[in-house]
Design a protein that fits this description.
Blueprint (H helix, E strand, L loop, with lengths): L4 H31 L1 H5 L8 H33 L9 H11 L3 H19 L1
Protein name: Cardiolipin synthase N-terminal domain-containing protein
Organism: Muriicola jejuensis
Keywords: Membrane, Transmembrane, Transmembrane helix
């Protein structure tokens, strides 16, 4: 599983993609809420009461999925870095793991581009 190109790309791009999708969903929710503010002012009979809670439930679901993908990405790339023979020679393993922890999402994407895709192209040549 560590050498599977699909999972490497998924766990590298997934957290950032979920962040972007989450922000888009949040702004769509705010836009829909603001566009229906007139219905809120004229009483509860004109506005379905569970609309807000239903859409907040969807946002919470996406946040939960994003957290799970981000945590899975963190674990996947720490294990991947630990098994990477190119990082055993110097202190790069510690640097990458600290980057994964403190720059979660972005650190995995950078590692994927530099260490996985970059080294794959060098090995194929």
């Amino acid at each position: 599983m560590l050498r599977n190109k699909f999972w490497q790309a998924f766990f590298a791009i997934g957290p950032i993609a979920m962040l972007v999708l989450g922000l888009i969903g949040y702004f769509v929710f705010l836009f829909m809420l603001i566009s229906r503010i007139n219905h809120l002012e004229h009483g509860p009979g004109n506005f379905p009461e569970n609309w807000i809670l239903g859409n907040l439930g969807i946002i919470v679901f996406f946040v939960l999925i994003a957290v799970l993908i981000s945590f899975g990405s963190l674990i996947y790339y720490i294990v991947h870095a630990a098994y990477n023979p190119n990082l055993k020679q110097n202190n790069l393993l510690l640097v990458w793991i600290l980057l994964f922890i403190f720059a979660n999402g972005l650190g995995q994407l950078i590692y994927w581009i530099i260490e996985v895709v970059g080294k794959r192209d060098q090995q194929e040549s």
